[in-house]
């Protein structure tokens, strides 16, 4: 059941994010209930007047692996700078590369992402790129040494689910590195569907953070991801146009005549 | 000399990055610091000599997906 990325083994296939929670208590309770073993963080210039919001301590106490992202980076150069800063601030060589020059749709820039991943791999980072569900790009990223690919299901925070499903299926079929569906997952059923389809993991943030009951939603995602993976490993049946009886009722009907 | 810390103009008379950061960062705080957009590892703060008009940026972790 476990998933290994760059030699690190995860027993949970649910990765989480720390954004958008109303407060730290809800964030911690939700991540704890979800069973997630890795959660994302961002980096910002410190506000010298108001001081630090000190998010690290409770997360460290929780014992989850911290995955810095390069959110805010608009090109490869900025993403590499962000990764180097994150490495220093969080003492990790893991980084989720996300480069979105356009704040309206937050679409990841494929060209800058490929450039950044190539360079970060060369610098010794474990790179997890957030990208569009583009099967060609996924192969290119794999070739330059990305440790996994993180194609989107739908625009970030949109809760639209697996809008990119036909392309995710191709990516999953072709990939030699773990496929983590990131962005757009709005409900546990979306997460289950991704795992059933053979995705190695999902990354969920908004759907957990904005729920009315964040802790229960964390648990719901945990169960959905486990169910989806179990179904995948058990082998789901083939989809077909015609009906096929689940009970051998034909014999019984004959006896009635 | 004139320095800029997270874009704020600052007058500072000592020479090392470590001395400057003592005003902003506590010993246990996990931050990343760059001088003129070059990351300076914590172990090098005491050796990093600042010069006039250097731009020092201090970063910290915040919540994010």
Automatic annotation (TrEMBL), chain A:
Q: Where in the cell is it found?
A: Cytoplasm
Superkingdom assignment:
Bacteria
Enzymatic class: transferase
Q: List, from the UniProt record, the residues annotated as the active site of this protein.
A: 96 (schiff-base intermediate with dxp)
Thiazole synthase ThiG domain residues are 4-248
Q: Which InterPro entries match?
A: Aldolase_TIM (IPR013785), Thiazole_synthase_ThiG (IPR033983), ThiG (IPR008867)
Residues annotated to bind 1-deoxy-D-xylulose 5-phosphate:
157, 183-184, 205-206
Q: Name one GO cellular component term.
A: cytoplasm
The family classification in the record reads: Belongs to the ThiG family.
Per UniProt, subunit arrangement is: Homotetramer. Forms heterodimers with either ThiH or ThiS.
Q: Under what name is this protein listed? A: Thiazole synthase
Organism of origin is Marinomonas fungiae
From TrEMBL, chain B:
NCBIfam families reported for this sequence: thiS
Q: Which domain of life is it from?
A: Bacteria
- Protein name, as recorded: Sulfur carrier protein ThiS
Q: Which InterPro entries match?
A: Beta-grasp_dom_sf (IPR012675), Mopterin_synth/thiamin_S_b (IPR016155), Thi_S (IPR010035), ThiS/MoaD-like (IPR003749)
The organism's taxonomic lineage, starting at the top: Bacteria, Pseudomonadati, Pseudomonadota, Gammaproteobacteria, Oceanospirillales
Question: What Gene3D superfamilies does UniProt report for this protein, alphabetically?
Answer: 3.10.20.30
In its UniProt entry, the species of origin is given as Marinomonas fungiae
